[in-house]
């Protein structure tokens, strides 16, 4: 079991304070949901952990050893699925897989997935949103990293692929700690073991949909 600990991360853009103080602990085998309104800093938080956005202050450790986000990409400890697609639109699925995985067993795990095998000859630019997102989650989720962060994996995709993404994440969580942020809150709550809400720069622990209402992330009339 690996343990990821984040303490006292903060971020401002000029005079605007986005994140004042957010802390969390995540173990492999756990799925953490992060909620918050647009502009509250959810995506910025993930980018700061991954190392593509510099924090004003940050204290992170993995298994008690200091973790430096600026060295994460070469050390391969935390994988990240960004909100927007990162794959070249002109390449076919079957040609993308070997770019990420040289080991034949890993390649086969993705290529012979029941949904991917049917569309392996398609170019990335020809895929539906659900097909594309599912493929991206498979790529990132099969990396060797102990921790995985997903930014809006469920946004605007077909129910079939939402279900398949949930099944895949439930399958790999035994070996990974997973962070998810998405406005499709019911899909997130379906698979998380803990949740936080970022509001006014701070993190609040959340147990259920009712608490999302209480903190005014959801309206009082939401079902």
- Count of helix runs: 8
Largest sheet: 6 strands, mixed
State the distance separating the first and last CA atoms: 37 Å
Strand order of the largest sheet: 6-7-8-3-9-10
How would you state the average pLDDT, rounded? Answer: 94
CATH architecture annotation name: 3-Layer(aba) Sandwich
* Poorly predicted runs of 5 or more residues: none
**How many beta-strand runs?**
10
Q: What would CATH call the class?
A: Alpha Beta
What name goes with the CATH superfamily? P-loop containing nucleotide triphosphate hydrolases
In short:
Helices cover 31% and strands 27% of the residues.
Fold and architecture overview:
The chain is of the alpha/beta class and 223 residues long. It has one domain: Rossmann fold. Helices cover 31% and strands 27% of the residues. The protein has 8 helices and 10 strands. The chain has a 6-stranded mixed β-sheet with strand order 6-7-8-3-9-10, sandwiched between helices. Strands 2-1-4-5 form a 4-stranded antiparallel β-sheet, covered by helices on one side. Helix 5 packs parallel to helix 6. The longest helix has 14 residues, at 159-172. It is globular and about 45 Å long.
Short key terms for the protein model shown above:
single chain; about 220 residues; alpha/beta; Rossmann fold; six-stranded mixed sheet; four-stranded antiparallel sheet
């Amino acid at each position: 079991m690996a343990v990821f600990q984040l303490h006292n991360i903060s971020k401002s853009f000029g005079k605007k304070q986005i994140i004042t103080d957010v802390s969390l602990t995540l173990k492999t085998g756990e799925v953490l949901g992060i909620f918050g309104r647009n502009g509250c800093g959810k995506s910025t938080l993930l980018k700061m952990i991954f190392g593509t956005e510099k924090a004003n202050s940050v204290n992170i450790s993995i298994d008690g050893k200091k973790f430096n986000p600026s060295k994460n990409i070469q050390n391969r400890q935390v994988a990240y699925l960004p909100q927007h697609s990162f794959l070249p639109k002109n390449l076919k699925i079957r040609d993308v897989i070997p770019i990420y995985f040289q080991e034949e067993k890993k390649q086969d795990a993705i290529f012979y997935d029941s949904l991917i095998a049917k569309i392996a000859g398609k170019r990335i630019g020809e895929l539906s949103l659900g097909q594309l997102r599912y493929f991206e989650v498979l790529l990132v989720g099969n990396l060797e990293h102990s921790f995985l962060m997903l930014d809006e994996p469920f946004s605007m995709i077909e129910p079939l692929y939402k279900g398949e993404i949930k099944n895949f994440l439930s399958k790999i969580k035994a070996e990974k700690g997973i962070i998810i942020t998405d406005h499709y809150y019911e899909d997130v709550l379906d698979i998380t073991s803990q949740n936080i809400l970022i509001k006014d720069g701070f993190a609040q622990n959340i147990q259920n949909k009712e608490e999302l209402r209480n903190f005014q992330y959801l309206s009082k009339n939401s079902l």
